[in-house]
Write a structure and sequence with these properties.
By secondary structure, this protein is α/β, with parallel strands linked by helices. It has 2 domains: about 80 residues, no CATH class; about 150 residues, Leucine Aminopeptidase, subunit E, domain 1 (3-Layer(aba) Sandwich), CATH 3.40.220. The protein is built from 6 helices and 13 strands. A 6-stranded mixed beta sheet has the order 8-13-12-9-11-10, sandwiched between helices. Strands 4-3-2-1-7 form a 5-stranded antiparallel beta sheet. It starts with a strand and ends with a strand.
């Protein structure tokens, strides 16, 4: 389902004076925001980000609670152009963390655990074994999804809530075309193109639900992919949106 996105540019009063705020909304939820004050640009996709000059960097409320009549409506391309001005390689890299640990165990509440599934309906090797031991519903939902001819297609993602109290979800990303036949099989089964599509959907979901992300080193094992390539895709689709992303290795 496509998300209704809208973008507004507004003048506003900040703690230290007048500034400009450019806000992205997914439906009624503010997901990313750029604040410009005294020629300095601040950007955030987290309700926790705060600066003494501008206050909190992301609006925590509903779009319909704002008076946007005097705001300028802009398009997504304009917003992304301004957003990119606030990014650098060091900023993007700061949103990626490598840690030792079990990726099936949420590091904190409000988490999205992401991994790759294949389009053959097979679930029995690699990370999915540990994942379904902890959350059996994830395997069941995947098996049900296999029979859905409309949505079970490469590039799509199935989001499963696994802990309503702690706000934890799992994303089954359909980005692997086929399965490894044996240990000698060096075929690349992961599709980078479809991984990009999956991670775009993941980013949208994480922004709207205000989730951070964790994952194992997806696609580089049974998927036969190059981790350097996969990491670049993760940075472009996830870290670029200033979504915290923890990569866990045992």
């Amino acid at each position: 389902m496509e998300i209704d996105k809208s973008y507004y540019l507004s003048k506003c009063e900040l703690p230290q004076g007048e500034g400009t705020v450019i806000t992205e909304f997914y439906g009624e939820v503010a997901t990313r925001q750029i604040t410009i004050f005294n020629g300095i640009m601040y950007s955030s996709s987290s309700l926790e980000d705060w600066d003494e000059n501008v206050g909190y960097l992301l609006y925590d409320g509903k779009k319909n609670e704002l008076d946007l009549q005097e705001s300028e409506v802009i398009d997504e391309m304009q917003f992304e152009y301004e957003w990119d001005k606030t990014l650098s390689d060091s900023v993007v890299n700061s949103y990626i963390s490598y840690q030792t640990g079990d990726a099936t165990i949420p590091i904190s509440s409000s988490r999205l655990i992401i991994h790759i599934v294949n389009n053959m309906g097979k679930w029995g090797k690699g990370f999915v074994v540990a994942l379904s031991k902890r959350y059996p519903v994830v395997k069941k939902m995947y098996q049900d999804w296999v029979n859905d001819d409309k949505s079970f297609a490469l590039g799509n993602v199935q989001f499963v809530v696994v802990d309503e109290v702690e706000n934890v979800f799992v994303a089954n990303m359909l980005a692997q075309n086929g399965i490894k036949r044996n240990y000698k099989d060096s075929t690349q089964y992961i599709s980078y193109e479809h991984l990009e599509k999956c991670l775009s959907l993941v980013a949208d979901f994480a922004l709207e639900k205000r989730l951070s992300i964790q994952l194992p080193m997806i696609g580089a094992g049974l998927g036969g992919g190059d981790w350097n390539v996969i990491e670049k895709i993760i940075k472009n689709k996830i870290a670029r949106n200033k979504i915290k992303c923890d990569i866990l290795r045992l």
